[in-house]
Each structure stands twice: as C-alpha cells, then as structure tokens.
C-alpha cells in the first residue's frame, strides 16, 4: 500500500489532535514498521525487567513448571493460540543433515568446488560467481526426497485441533508443507525451495520446474532472460521474507503458548522470537540441549530476555531435553493423542510411498513400542 507521508506531516494536530495522532500511528503499522514494534516491545521488556512498567499480567498460568504443567494447561483449554518455532532438530530424523554445520560430510562432498569457506555456498556474491556448488547441495537436500517426521505431524495435529496460531520454521526443506500444514499457518523464516526467482528479472518459478533442472545437473536458467533462478531460500545477508515481519506483528500479542522444537536458538532474528510473547506466556523447549537462555554478563544485566528455565522464580519456562520426535510423542501421549499421532504419521508415510510407487517399510521410528 502507498503511504502519503507528506499529507501526514502537513496535518497539524490541532483540534482533532488525538485522532490525527492515532491515524498516523496506525498508518505506520500498516506500512510494516515492524522494527518500530520490535523496539517498543524490547523497551517494554526492559521496563518490566527494571520494574518500571506496569505489567498487566504477571500471574503464573502453569499449575506446575514441568511438562505436565503444559499438558494441564492445554487440556484445560486455556490456550487456543499456540505458536510453534522450529529448527533443524525437527527434520534430522527425516535424514536431512544439519548442513549448516561443517563436518557433517555434506561439505566434504563440496571440497572439489573449492569453496572459500563452507558458508560461502549460501552467500549471494559467491553464488553469482559460481552457482554450481549450491545446486549440487540443493540436489542432495531436495524436497521430495524426504518424509516429514513425527514432529511435523504433531504440529499438523495442533492445527487440526484448532490450537495452532502459526508455525515458524527456520528449515528450508518444505517438510511442513509435505506434512499438510497449510500455507496460511506457516512462516518459513529462512524461505524455502517452494518457489524461486530469476535473480535478474525476478520472474517466479515453482518447485517442480526448478527440480527438473537441478536433477538433470543443470543450473536453472530463466526462460525470459539469461538470469540464474535461485530458490527462495534466504542467503546470508538477505532480508527475511515479508511474511515473517508481517506475521510476528500480528501473532505474538495473541500467543498463549510457545513451543520451541529442535532449535538451538542462535540464529537471529528468529532466536529473538521467544522474547516477543507476552511475559506471562508459558514457553516449552523440546530440544537435545538447553537453548535460548542467556548466560554470563547478559544474564547478570537481566535485560536480554531469553528463556528463563534456570532462573530463580521462573514460572513459565520448561526445557524437555531429548530427541524432538520423542518429546512430541510424549507430549501427545500425555494429551491423549498418542495413537492418533502415530496413526497419522504412518498413514501419511504410506500415502507418500504410494505416490512414489514404493512399498511401505515401517521404519524403526514409527514402530510402536508403547501400548498406552
Ligand atoms: Zn529472468
């Protein structure tokens, strides 16, 4: 939308001053100044930490600060707007390597391309110079070669039960889409392979068009110009998609429960999302190790936010440590959704295999060992 700054500036806040001010600020918001709202939230948080602000809702909402506390909170229908934040940990059991960390073997395959450093593969400058290594990696990681995990189906279940406000993912593997989480519930913060654009003329291409070329070991080249078509994944130094900033603006004030799945919460601004939820909202981390908590001088200053499971007086944060799928299954079981989740997982995988003309073999992670 267009915003006429001039007319706003020229309007003097005389007799209808209050109205004018309101107008101006709401227009600002519509204009997408999420930076403004982010800063004001940080400010509010700081005031709260320093005991300056009037915090409207400090009452604790969990009856106990444990996984069971979360289960009761959900079971008692106290929350309807769950936000889930996910990282690579929800996809590792699908066989997708954590390709951002060197030493996974993936980068070793790329040595022949003489990358100046592993991350160069996700840098635009390098890509412009030599897009080949990226597409070799893309072929290995390409969506369609992997199946969603139990964790993905857990998120879909939250949606189907009317509890999911939005799922934010750092992953570019599109497994959320494959798992049936609808587009409007999904924010792919680091983009995805779902669409691509010509770097020269910005023409849009869809997943299968790119896939055909990438699997023929070709570099996808625009049909309208000689530009290279790059999948819409966010490279280092690129802005996050508009959908990301628009959605956080809309979502976090409504959020009544935050679940962080398989993310070490180190990549910003994604990692800062944990601080965007109102200060009474319970936050559950399901991850192999503790993450998102501030340590050292940051913690001493007490102004940096983060998850508070190790802090005195914590009433809302819980870390469940272990494998993401196990954590999701345990949570589902405690909620009475265990067999429903396992059935969904199995049924969906059979569908995918059928489409690919394979016979289903039950992998070890779907084999049921529980009889609850
Ligand atoms: Zn083009």
TrEMBL record:
<feature type="binding site">
    <location>
        <begin position="98"/>
        <end position="100"/>
    </location>
    <ligand>
        <name>NAD(+)</name>
    </ligand>
</feature>
<keyword id="KW-0479">Metal-binding</keyword>
<dbReference type="InterPro" id="IPR003000">
    <property type="entry name" value="Sirtuin"/>
</dbReference>
<dbReference type="GO" id="GO:0008270">
    <property type="term" value="F:zinc ion binding"/>
</dbReference>
<feature type="binding site">
    <location>
        <position position="198"/>
    </location>
    <ligand>
        <name>Zn(2+)</name>
    </ligand>
</feature>
<keyword id="KW-0862">Zinc</keyword>
<dbReference type="InterPro" id="IPR026591">
    <property type="entry name" value="Sirtuin_cat_small_dom_sf"/>
</dbReference>
<feature type="domain" description="Deacetylase sirtuin-type">
    <location>
        <begin position="60"/>
        <end position="338"/>
    </location>
</feature>
<dbReference type="InterPro" id="IPR050134">
    <property type="entry name" value="NAD-dep_sirtuin_deacylases"/>
</dbReference>
<dbReference type="GO" id="GO:0017136">
    <property type="term" value="F:histone deacetylase activity, NAD-dependent"/>
</dbReference>
<dbReference type="InterPro" id="IPR029035">
    <property type="entry name" value="DHS-like_NAD/FAD-binding_dom"/>
</dbReference>
<dbReference type="Pfam" id="PF02146">
    <property type="entry name" value="SIR2"/>
</dbReference>
<feature type="compositionally biased region" description="Polar residues">
    <location>
        <begin position="10"/>
        <end position="26"/>
    </location>
</feature>
<feature type="binding site">
    <location>
        <position position="201"/>
    </location>
    <ligand>
        <name>Zn(2+)</name>
    </ligand>
</feature>
<dbReference type="InterPro" id="IPR017328">
    <property type="entry name" value="Sirtuin_class_I"/>
</dbReference>
<comment type="similarity">
    <text>Belongs to the sirtuin family. Class I subfamily.</text>
</comment>
<dbReference type="GO" id="GO:0005634">
    <property type="term" value="C:nucleus"/>
</dbReference>
<dbReference type="GO" id="GO:0070403">
    <property type="term" value="F:NAD+ binding"/>
</dbReference>
<feature type="active site" description="Proton acceptor">
    <location>
        <position position="190"/>
    </location>
</feature>
<feature type="binding site">
    <location>
        <position position="324"/>
    </location>
    <ligand>
        <name>NAD(+)</name>
    </ligand>
</feature>
<feature type="binding site">
    <location>
        <begin position="170"/>
        <end position="173"/>
    </location>
    <ligand>
        <name>NAD(+)</name>
    </ligand>
</feature>
<protein>
    <recommendedName>
        <fullName>NAD-dependent protein deacetylase</fullName>
        <ecNumber>2.3.1.286</ecNumber>
    </recommendedName>
</protein>
<feature type="binding site">
    <location>
        <position position="222"/>
    </location>
    <ligand>
        <name>Zn(2+)</name>
    </ligand>
</feature>
<keyword id="KW-0520">NAD</keyword>
<feature type="binding site">
    <location>
        <begin position="287"/>
        <end position="289"/>
    </location>
    <ligand>
        <name>NAD(+)</name>
    </ligand>
</feature>
<feature type="binding site">
    <location>
        <begin position="88"/>
        <end position="92"/>
    </location>
    <ligand>
        <name>NAD(+)</name>
    </ligand>
</feature>
<feature type="region of interest" description="Disordered">
    <location>
        <begin position="347"/>
        <end position="372"/>
    </location>
</feature>
<keyword id="KW-0808">Transferase</keyword>
<dbReference type="InterPro" id="IPR026590">
    <property type="entry name" value="Ssirtuin_cat_dom"/>
</dbReference>
<feature type="binding site">
    <location>
        <position position="225"/>
    </location>
    <ligand>
        <name>Zn(2+)</name>
    </ligand>
</feature>
<feature type="region of interest" description="Disordered">
    <location>
        <begin position="1"/>
        <end position="32"/>
    </location>
</feature>
């Amino acid at each position: 939308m267009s915003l006429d700054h001039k007319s706003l500036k020229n309007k003097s806040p005389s007799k209808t001053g209050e109205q004018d001010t309101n107008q101006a600020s709401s227009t600002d918001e519509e204009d997408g100044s999420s930076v403004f709202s982010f800063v004001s939230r940080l400010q509010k948080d700081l005031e709260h930490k320093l005991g300056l602000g009037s915090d409207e809702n400090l009452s604790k909402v969990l009856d106990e600060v444990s996984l069971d506390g979360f289960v009761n909170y959900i079971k008692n229908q106290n929350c309807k707007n769950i936000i889930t934040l996910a990282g690579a940990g929800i996809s590792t059991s699908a066989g997708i390597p954590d390709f951002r960390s060197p030493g996974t073997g993936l980068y070793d395959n790329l040595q022949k391309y003489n990358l100046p450093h592993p991350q160069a593969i996700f840098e635009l400058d390098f890509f412009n110079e030599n897009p080949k290594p990226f597409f070799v990696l893309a072929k290995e990681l390409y969506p369609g070669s992997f199946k969603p995990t139990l964790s993905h189906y857990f998120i879909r279940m939250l949606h189907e039960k009317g509890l999911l406000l939005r799922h934010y993912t750092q992953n570019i593997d599109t497994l959320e889409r494959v798992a049936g989480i609808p587009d409007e519930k999904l924010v792919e913060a680091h983009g995805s392979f779902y669409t691509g654009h010509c770097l020269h003329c910005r023409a849009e291409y869809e997943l299968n068009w790119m896939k055909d070329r990438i699997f023929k070991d070709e570099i996808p080249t625009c049909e309208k110009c000689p530009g290279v078509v790059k999948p819409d994944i966010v490279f280092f130094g690129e802005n996050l998609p508009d959908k990301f900033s628009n959605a956080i603006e809309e979502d976090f004030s409504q959020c009544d429960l935050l679940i962080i799945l398989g993310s070490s919460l180190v990549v910003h601004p994604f990692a800062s999302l944990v601080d965007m939820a109102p200060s009474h909202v319970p936050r559950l981390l399901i991850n192999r190790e503790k993450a998102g908590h501030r340590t050292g001088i940051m913690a001493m200053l007490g102004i940096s936010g983060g998850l508070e499971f190790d802090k005195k007086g914590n009433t809302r944060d819980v870390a469940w440590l272990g494998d993401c799928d196990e954590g999701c299954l345990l949570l589902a079981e405690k909620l009475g959704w265990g067999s429903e989740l396992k059935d969904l997982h199995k049924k969906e995988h059979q569908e995918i295999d059928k489409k690919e003309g394979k016979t289903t073999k039950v992998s070890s992670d779907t084999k049921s060992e529980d009889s609850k």
